[in-house]
Amino acid sequence: MRQSQLFTKTRKEAPKDEVSKNAQLLIRAGYIHKEMAGVYSYLPLGLRVINNINTIIREEMNAIGGQEVFMSALQDPELWKTTDRWNDDVVDVWFKSKLKAGGEIGFAWTHEEMITRIVSQYLRSYKDLPLFTYHIQNKFRNEMRAKSGIMRTREFLMKDLYSFSRTEEEHEKFYNECAEAYMRIFNRLGIGDKTYKTFASGGAFTKFSHEFQTLADAGEDIVYVNEEKNIAVNEEVLEEADLSEFGVTRDELEKQKSIEVGNIFSLGTKFSEALGLNYVNEEGEEKPVIMGSYGIGPARSMGTVVELLSDEKGIVWPEEVAPFKIHLVEIGGDDEKVRAYADDLYKKLTTANTEVLYDDRDARAGEKFADSDLIGIPTRIVISKKTLESGMIERVNRKTGMVDMVSEKDLLS
RNA sequence: CGGGAUGUAGUGUAACGGCUAACAUUCCCGCUUUGGGAGCGGGCGACUCCGGGUUCGAAUCCCGGCAUCCCGACCA
What is the ipTM, given to two decimal places? Predict the structure, then answer.
């Protein structure tokens, strides 16, 4: 798209009420807008990033058999009463409202109850299993304190997948496949080398659950890591008895700050029993379905990428996440030849289906370069009188700062 | 929810209880400039968060509310 038509603009200074690096950079570059504490809107650049992240998540979830649905945000109190999770004393993050017609309504903070009821409408036989459903949708949580920019908000996008299995073995198999898919996702997001599948306490049905923790100074969580052994555990399972199961000792672990970018856990039959989600097995007996729940926050992941990969000049997006692949910057655009060439190149690139942001603004080079660094598109292409005279095109790598000259033909191929 | 702090043009900052609320930036106009947020001139933009109070006089002091941030608690 042409940058002259992009309605957002960059700013030199971040609002004083933003302290976190992710929000400061994302606001300065025009990716997001803060509505109020813990509530952010996504602007054109930001939405493109979120969509890219969601695409990665979808591809990986589909690859392990996930079926995408889209569940409503508005929640039926009666449904939640069956699991005793409507009660404010049990769940303290509810946003609730009254219906004009009478009665109450809730805003979804998770979807176990809803998906279980939906699936129960269709699932009868062992032949229907296993089944994996997921959706990407807004969650609402009435947090006591929002903080850390887009990392901990009251309204946020979440991908949650729910698995339905016949046996523990079947459940375990998918659980592990999903964990592997999660690591592929974080690798593609560019934060894989800092992200650990972390042991956490399990709950009623399994001894352990897992969090995906990305080591970062901005993190709110604490994990204990052994990078060589590729093992991380959270505080809940720091007992020696647990640690010996993982093959580490306490003094081999280093305490580090981290961001929880995902989590997976076994639900056992808690929801299936509460909501009557049973299937008939080969012997004709009715059995409760074994469930699992698997979450990733796309917006929190976006914030984590910014926290980890930005530098003093601005954001540095990984290839797959970036809002555009190429930032085409023309300088000296009052020269008709430069303008015409840049226009033409823009046309060729977009025709070739390359996502390109074209800085066609009537601005000086310094301002354009500063903005380009701040916005953080991986590859910058510079067109100027100089490049025109050389017959080559200047290409700058945002991450490394490396500059090379390429021919138009090589660029387009 | 406990503790602390802060609310002034879009943004960042200033202003002793006292003149028309100042400066920078953004934005608009003109000239100049043109490879790292250029320069000069002119201009637009503020019920100083809201409501009370004290005072001859309040951005400034007091009370209440609201909002935002930080620390803690909390956080499937």
Answer: 0.95
